Amino acid sequence: MIDALVLFDLVLALAIIGIAAGVLILRDAFAMIVCFVIFGLLSALAWVRLAAPDVALAEAAIGTGVTGALLLKTLAHLRGRTLSPPLRVKGGLVVNAALCALVTLAGIGVFLATPIGGAGLEGLVAQNLAASGVAHPVTAVLLNFRAFDTLMEVVVLLVAVVAVWSMERGIARAPAPVMGEVYAGFARLVLPAAVIVGAYLLWIGAIAPGGAFQGGAVLAAVGLMLLITRAYTPLPAHRGAARIVFVIGTALFAAVALFVAQGGRATFEYPAAHAKSLILIIEAVVTISIAATLAALFHGREPVAVSVRETRA
Amino acid sequence: MSDIMLYAAIAVPLALAGAAILPAARALVLRLAVIAPLPALALALVAPPSALSEPWLIMGTVIGLDSVSRIFLAFSAILWAAAAATARRWMRGDGHATGFITCFLLAMTGNIGLILAQDAFSFYALFALMSFASFGLVVHARSDKAYRAGRLYIGFVVAGELALFAGLLLASREAGSPLLADLRMAELSGLSVALLIGGFAVKLGIMPLHFWLPPAHGAAPVPASAVLSGAMIKAGLFGMLSSLPLGLHAYPDHATVMLAAGLVTIFAAALIGVREESPKAVLGFSSVSQMGIIALGLGAGLMAPAAWTVLLPVVVFLAAHHALAKGALFLGAGMFGAVTGLRARILVMLALILPAAALAGLTATSGALGKEALKSALETGSADWLPWLIAALTLSGVATTLLMARFAHTLWKQAPGAPEMVRAQPDGLVVPFLGLVALSAILPATWPLIVPEIAFAVIADKTADPLPILVGIVIALAAIIRAHALGIGVQAFIQGITAPFLALRSHIDAASRRRARSLRRAAHRIPAMLSQRAESLRLGQTAIAALILAVIAVGMLEMRNVGAGSAAPMPELGIDMPQPWD
Amino acid sequence: MEFTLLPLAILFTSLGIVPLLFALPERSARLRTTINLTAAAIKVGLVAWLSWRVSQGTIYGVGFEVLPGLAFKLQADPLAILFIALSSILWLITTIYSVGYLEKGPHRARFFGFFSLCVAATVGIAMAGNLFTFLLFYELLTIATYPLVIHRGTAEALRAGRIYLIYTLAGGLVLLVGTLWLWVMAGSTDFAAGGMMADIAAASPVQALMLFVVLIAGLGVKAALVPFHAWLPIAMVAPAPVSALLHAVAVVKAGAFGIMRVVYEVFGIHVAVDLGVTLPLAIAAGITIIYGSLRALTQDDIKKRLAYSTVSQVSYITLGVALASPIAAIGALAHLIHQGLMKITMFMAAGNLAEGLGVKSVSAMNGVGRRMPGTMLAFTLAALAMIGLPPLAGFVSKWYLASGGLDAGQGWVIALLLASSLLNAAYFLPMLHRAWFVDADAGAGAQESARQRPIGWMLSAPPLVTAALVLIAGGLANAPFSPLEWTRFVVAIEYRE
Amino acid sequence: MNFDMNLDTGTIFGVAGMIVFGIGLFGALSVSDSLRRVLALKLCGVGASFILIVAAWRGPAMPADPVPHALVITGIVVMVSATAVALALIRRIHSLENGRDV
Amino acid sequence: MSEFASIDWLALTVFAPLLGAVASFLAPRMAPQIGFASLTVTALCVVMLAAQVIAGGPVIVSLGGWGAPLGLDLRADGLGIVMLGMTMLVGLFVSLGALDSFSAAREGEENARMRLYFWPLWLLLLSGLNGAYVSTDIFNLYVMIEVIALAAIGLTVLTGRLEAMRAGLEYMFASMLGALLFLMAVGLAYLQAGRLDFAGLAAHAGEPAMMLAFALMLVGLALKTALFPLHFWLPRAHASASAPASALLSGLVLKASLYILLRFWVEIFGPGSLIGLTVGLMGTGAVIWGSVQALRTQRLKLLVAWSTVAQIGLICVAFALADTIGAQTAWQGAVLLMVAHAVAKAAMFLAAGRIAQETGHDRIADLDRTHLRPTLAQFAFALAAISLIGLPPSAGFAGKWLLMEGAMRAGAWIWVVVAMAGTLFSVAYLSRPLIGFLRFDRAPDPVGEHHGWAIADAPPLMLAFIAAISGLAAVQIIGVLDIGAPFGPFP
After folding, report:
1. ipTM
2. What does the alpha-carbon distance between residue B556 and residue E215 come to, in Å, rounded to a whole number?
3. pLDDT of E293-339, one tens digit each?
4. What is the reported pTM?
5. Bond before C239 cis per omega within 30 degrees
6. For residue B482, what is the DSSP state?
7. CATH node for D3-97
8. Do B538 and D29 touch (CB under 8 A)?
9. What is the secondary structure of E303-370 as a DSSP string?
10. Cα Rg for chain A, rounded, in angstroms?
11. Is C116:C263 a contact under the CB 8 Å cutoff?
12. D33, D54, D70: residue with CB nearest A142
């Protein structure tokens, strides 16, 4: 007997696979990106089915939302260039397809041969949740048990923004997306709401699905809108502030991690009394950093170079 | 005192030769060369028998003087002195005088030294010094003829030296000591004796090893010819006397060859010699012929050790006789070329008759004395050979007479050219020439005075064992070697040897070059093509998936192998080790 | 064994000045010369002291661990002294010669730096206490000589350098594998009188045999054994002092010395004989001797002729080692020194001819004796010594080799040596003939030899000194502390069993 | 193997994740257009995330293992960073190629 | 002293460069000073950590105090210390080189920009590298390699030239794909084992999911390490970057993924000999192909880059010996070779950069002793070549020795032959530029005094010198390396 939900799962899975294939097959670049966004959203849905709402939220906000925006911006930049036909049947292609199919089959075989849910750390997490300072297990893992991973992940963002700033310079401006008055108005209306949602997500992260990344993504969306609508134009003078915002999450996180390491405590070992507040502070600051960084990644270049070029032009 | 004299005999000529390096001393050296052999002469005449050991020098050096060496030293020193005196005039104004006198003195050092040497090392060293230094004397004229003679000479010298090296090496191992006295007492193997005889026979000019001798004597300037013929070829004889166990052990095979060679040498040299155009070459062949006589004595000694005690004095006497007479003849030839005017020429010619007659064996001359003594001494030896030897000795007088006649004829027709300076003042040549003539004449009288202990002769038995076939082979070989050596020359000979080798090499080179070129082309093309192909097909990317599959496949394979091999399938795969941080 | 820093001090006299020499500016020639000569003189003094101590029975050693279980080990034993003495004396002489030779040339700083490094490597090779250390210095030698070989910087020199590098590095690599194998097999690479392979050779003779082949092949490249000899004649494009060093002291000798160490002190002569490797090695050496001489015959370039002569002469050493007779061993070891003296004389003389007269080929040598009597006198002495005339050095070693051949029951060795001497005579005597007895205007190359410029004492004296040494080494062979005497001392140790 | 027993949400999405990963891999290996290649790589990333999330899944109505979730969130952020850098590169190359740079 | 001992030097090795990066990013004008200072501090931390490890064995820090399966453990054992030491050594000298390469004295806006961004990127890279060497958790390693990869790509494209950008994009794709294969492997491993720490995973080695995970990780890391045939991205990326960046990429970045592979191989998966053989064959292919390409290429930096491909291949031969009796020796050799290659290759890239800077080109065929010859840089190049070829007394020699010794102990002569072939090849291709440095028959001007000396010559020279003589310290390095028995308790 097949459960209705399982049927839903099956259909959803098939849709995900089909759309994933579509990303590769569709000739039109815009369609491809749209396809990808849909794929992301369906994946997020699937993850909700798999009892992973935090992840779904993050995927929807960052994996799909921010990424989609980045892709569209790039597409706009590349506009005028026709995408080469994605798939041409050549010998190499067939060989690749066959090999990848075999790898996939092997993967599926291995997956089916491995029991699901056999082993995990949920027991340990539950045991230590109380000591972690937060109630939501995912947040506990992110900001306490595996805080080092999270720190390094923020570092990855920092690396990305440094790298992007270092490479993207002097680009003549891509034509700005044509955004009507309606959009601008919508943006103005939505902005305060989005800020509030972001902050809420951050706060709620301590006890329920949500947290720094999701909140950061929402705040980043605010930034994106500001940038798109030219409500905010990055100026050279803002560079210093921008740099501070980018690094403050990393810096604070690292500083706290090191600072707590005294009196016999290890690095990242928050004093039990201050664990919650420390985590909250870190999360808040990291959220701001993430938001600013994501927005900067979208904007894509250091303000100074552009301004110099533009004033000359 | 005698130690100092021993040293001085060798050191004086060597020091003079060394002094020739200094440009300032060169003229003086030429002038003083005449005194260089005098210490040796004094040593020979007055010093008591002595020996001196210097273990630190070379590999242990012993020099000394015994009765045989005393005689050799005496006549060699006289000859060297006479030649030096001649050279003093002869070389004046010659552009290469310094080179000549240096070589002359070095050869003198070698010659005198080897007579004094009592061990194989120093003997060999000085023998080589003499031989190699003489090269400079032979090629002194710098003419094509001289160079040809020089090449021939040096080729034979090197071959002879190598034979000597091997012979001395083997002999001293067999004797267990490098001292020549021990060599003489040891029973040497046939091989080492053959090597020694061969090595010394080159110097002695016994056929078929004589080819170098006439051209060299012909090419060298007069004073050099005199010592080459008078003193240096005797060094070969001296070598045999001092290194072979003569009188102790019989070597019949060697003796046979030696006797045969001697017999052939006496007459063949005469026959060839009479066809020569140059008086000095004729004299050279005469020397060869005379050495044939000496070879008969040696051969007899090798055949019958018992006869050696009587043969030895005779052989030594013959050597001294020939040295003085031939020296006189060479110097006379030079003199003849130097004087101008018919009267002077006739006078010189008359003076020349004396040594010539002595060589031919005219009654009462040293030559006749020597031959008769040899005949009687031979009778104590092998009976088989005796009639032949007697006949040969008898006939040798005929041959020598012929040669002397030819010498006189050619001398008259085309006397050897003398340098302009000598022509102008030939008087400086008179004393050495006449001195040698005189010494040659009075040799029979003075002989017993110098070395009384061996100045006697004995009569022995007779034997005969003709080996004409062997002689024929020797002659044939001689002819071949001669044709080859004279016809092609050393350089061409070497090229002949190496030519096929070189051709093969160039062939291989060319082939490998071609091959290398095509390989290099391929080496450049194939990687380029491969990398282009790999890039255009994006093989690197494909490899990612392929490798994943490969590793999975291999992993599965291994898992199966392990699973089949053991009851517990998994643990083997993980290296089961205690984790260090646990 | 006495632990002391003396070996290190000797090494340091050459190694320590290397950075100094590199750092000196090109123009401060006087200071450079002073440093060079002082160091060389100090080294000769130290070596003299060391030899004295070693002759009294003291063996000095110093070492530290480099790889697990493997030590860098220097050890001054009698065999080492033999080689160090040669290199230190010849270094002094060659340094003087080089100063004169490169008086106005470019890159002197570099030249002398690498020159010193080269000597340091040679000293290290001599004093290496195990095969591993030997290998270290063997490779260092390769690196240090390469810039010297290509010092002229021309396309030809670079080509020669490349060939040199490929040959010697490949040889070094093979030696590396051999050393490693020895280490894996025996657990030690130490040199010890009498060897250390007896048990292993008994247990697995095939492996021991293969190891021997690998080691000899690796060393044979530098020792220029046929067929690994091709680099040597090509490398003669180097400046004369470098050729002198390459041929006389450093590179080929390093190979020959290594063969000695391997045969005597790794395997042990008795083990080597039991393995049956000595006769093939002797035959290989014999082939090299004849081959090198035959090739030398047809060379017109003086240095090339000398180079092929080296190919031939160096194998005398190998031959003597392989004959497995103490007498032959004496010949081999003595030849190590004697050949060095003779060949360095000839190369310096050849350098003088090229520098002073522009004479580079045999056919242009007519009459050079008169124009450069001193140089040619030295050359003549050395050439006659090569042929093996007494009382020169070459005779002594040849005599012992031949006696050793008889001693070992290998009569063919005498024939071989005779043939070799004959060939030596065939290619050296024409040179002497031209130099002394042919007038300058006759023959080819008159134009080439027309150029003449005076050479200083720094060029003319060194060959005379070494020629005198050739004479002394032969003439005073039996005197105490002569090479021959020292050699007897060494062989007594190696054959002690 | 009992199909019914195994056909639960985890299995379905696990297999789907594998397939998505395979598709992404194929795209990453075969596609030459850079933008599409970035997307193919993102597919790979999502595919990998699927496996992690399935690994965390403990059945319907059961609380999941939070650790993989945290990992995936981290992975998503890392991925977006990498994507941003890749896209910036693509934009920059395009500008340089078309001479829109000074 | 006790205060010092209580300081978490281990974590500081990661945090010090991180904070330095933050500071240098915040104060771009002071970036070089800040960068160098924080590098020095990091070096100090590594030294202190090393002292701790040498004195008391491996140091383990449980971050947050949670302990392995739940939290993250950092660990510094001998192998980690050696890698950290190598990183710091190369890093310090390359930074010195960078001080000059991007010095304020040089003209141009591009240079100024490079100076601004080099330091944060490099310090972030360093923090990633150090993090990787002390990590014991595979997901943590995933994040680390992403940090490393993004920073490395940033460094690759720092020059802003089109070819660098293209090469960087290719590198980016390879790197991302490698990381994603790794991530998939992490997923499979968690699916199987339910934990991510090395020790926990080791217990599950050999199970199917682990097998697949291993395959993916192996290929992903091989892709990042540019092991033949997955090297396609490397030559262009390394050749087109600026000199200090190339030095870091070739010297350090590749080593990180190679190190991770080594760790996994030994500590977690311990795969069988056939897989070892596969990797060994890949290494052999790398030796041959890399060398052949290095022999063909016309540009100096490309030659150096191809030589990296070949050398990495040689190191990977050690994997083929992993389950033989010679394993420990071979691993030691491989690590020594990694260190040697890092030091020498960094020196070589810096030197090549100096040469190109002085002569204005890097065509091998046109190299000669011009009047502007950068003598010291050429000398450094030659010294580095000595180590890469593996001549004594370089660390390369010691490494090759141990590797070959391992092969011999295992009786696997084929790998001895491969090592020999690699050596000969390296002689052949490295002698091409070396010969060029020494020829002066084409020089238009008379060759005179030394020219082209600069402070910037010091770093490559020092590095090359260290590379050339560090073989003499091999036994000390191995002594450190064996602390904590990273290659298992072999007899």
Report:
1. 0.81
2. 11
3. 999 888 999 999 999 999 999 999 999 998 888 888 999 999 999 99
4. 0.84
5. no
6. H
7. 1.10.287
8. yes
9. HHHHHHHHHHHHHHHHHHTTTSTTHHHHHHHHHHHHHHHHHHHHHHHHHHHHHHHHHS--BGGG----
10. 22
11. no
12. D70
